[in-house]
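User: Sequence recovery, please. Input:
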């Protein structure tokens, strides 16, 4: 019989960790220099052109060398990319088209996918990032935070944490094409028998989004005995997942009901110098600009204790130096569209929070599958091979200076 484990009452040590259920994880990307990412792709092209035209000490100053990367460091091409593998100073090669990434939770930006510019690009993630892949990204543990425990995305995530406490990146599949779920062998069959419905990788991810609990050792994932409770949590998790994905994988882009959709009520100035919230008017004020309605839940939506809308604004208006300062002088029209979509996503997520809290309270009162029971069922411990990248090469990859990568 399943043990009754109450979350937050001392029983948490018995609950499985997300690390037990999605065992292969990768550390966050470490770009090493801020100018390789930007909210808009055109800025990255301008930065690249400036770097290519520079020489000698000026190139070093712009590049921002580190122990891992300098203009004289060759590097293997990232999987799926055809960039030059020679030192940048000798052969910059053609400009690599930027890729859309998730720069920390809820912030979609662009990245130059050139391994010579990135201190730690995590090639194992690039090998499995395709049209079938989804990623779960742990947030840092902040006591009494109350925000989401993790994010989900179809974009390549860099794993950046707002509070400087990065978690792990967990791909849903270990191989391209949505092959080999990143789950312990035996877990889907065990849960299918337990709940009487087929349980696949996306159902597990949906449950995790809805039910995972924060802990200093990583997210805890209670697995209830009640099949109806499981189904309810998966249904809620799929709603959360749809919002996190923002229309990716053929889904609809999030929209608020008519009359609650945010609009620009007063034009945003070319260079807004502040962002504040007018609670009485349900409006965000950007300098002399005004956007409303903005629900209080969207304005106060936090991850790791950091308000997401304030962080988004700060990243786009803060003073930068060197190549990172190269960007649009005025507020682009596209940035307003992105702001409206972010408000929409956060508002809809905040509206689901009471349902999520009610679900977690019910889970805390119900019997839950323990780690010991998972061991007895042969699901745990996870084999060491399941915590390492799968061998996914179906072609040779080019290494530094044109040599082939040996894996």
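Assistant: Recovered sequence (407 residues):
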């Amino acid at each position: 019989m399943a043990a009754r484990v109450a979350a937050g009452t001392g029983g948490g040590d018995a609950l499985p960790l997300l690390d037990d259920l999605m065992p292969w994880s990768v550390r966050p990307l470490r770009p090493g220099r801020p100018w390789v990412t930007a909210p808009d792709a055109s800025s990255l092209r301008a930065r690249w052109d400036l770097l290519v035209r520079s020489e000698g000490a000026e190139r070093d100053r712009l590049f921002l060398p580190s122990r891992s990367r300098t203009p004289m460091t060759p590097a293997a091409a990232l999987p799926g990319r055809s960039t030059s593998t020679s030192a940048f100073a000798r052969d910059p090669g053609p400009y690599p088209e930027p890729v859309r990434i998730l720069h920390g939770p809820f912030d979609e930006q662009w990245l130059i996918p050139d391994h010579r510019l990135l201190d730690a690009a995590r090639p194992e993630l690039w090998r499995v990032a395709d049209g079938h892949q989804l990623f779960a990204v742990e947030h840092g543990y902040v006591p009494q935070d109350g925000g989401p425990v993790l994010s989900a995305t179809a974009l390549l995530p860099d794993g950046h944490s707002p509070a400087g406490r990065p978690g792990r990146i967990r791909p849903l599949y270990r191989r391209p094409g949505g092959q080999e779920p990143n789950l312990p062998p035996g877990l889907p069959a065990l849960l299918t028998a337990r709940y009487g419905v087929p349980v696949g990788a996306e159902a597990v991810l949906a449950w995790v989004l809805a039910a995972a609990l924060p802990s200093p050792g990583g997210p805890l994932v209670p697995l209830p005995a009640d099949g109806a409770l499981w189904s309810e949590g998966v249904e809620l998790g799929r709603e959360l997942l749809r919002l996190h994905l923002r229309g990716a994988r053929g889904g609809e882009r999030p929209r608020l009901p008519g009359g609650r959709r945010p609009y620009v009520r007063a034009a945003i100035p070319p260079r807004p110098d502040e962002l504040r919230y007018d609670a009485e008017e349900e409006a965000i004020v950007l300098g002399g600009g005004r956007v409303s309605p903005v629900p209080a839940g969207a304005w106060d939506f936090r991850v790791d204790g950091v308000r997401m809308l304030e962080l988004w604004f700060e990243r786009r208006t803060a003073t930068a130096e060197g190549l990172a300062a190269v960007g649009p002088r005025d507020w682009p029209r596209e940035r307003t569209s992105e702001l409206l979509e972010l408000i929409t996503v956060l508002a809809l997520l905040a509206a689901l929070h009471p349902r999520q809290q009610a679900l977690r309270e019910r889970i805390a009162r119900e019997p839950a599958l323990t780690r010991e029971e998972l061991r007895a069922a042969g699901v745990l411990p996870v084999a060491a091979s399941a915590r390492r990248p799968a061998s996914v090469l179906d072609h040779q990859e080019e290494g530094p200076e044109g040599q082939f990568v040996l894996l």
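DSSP finds eleven helices and 15 strands in the chain.
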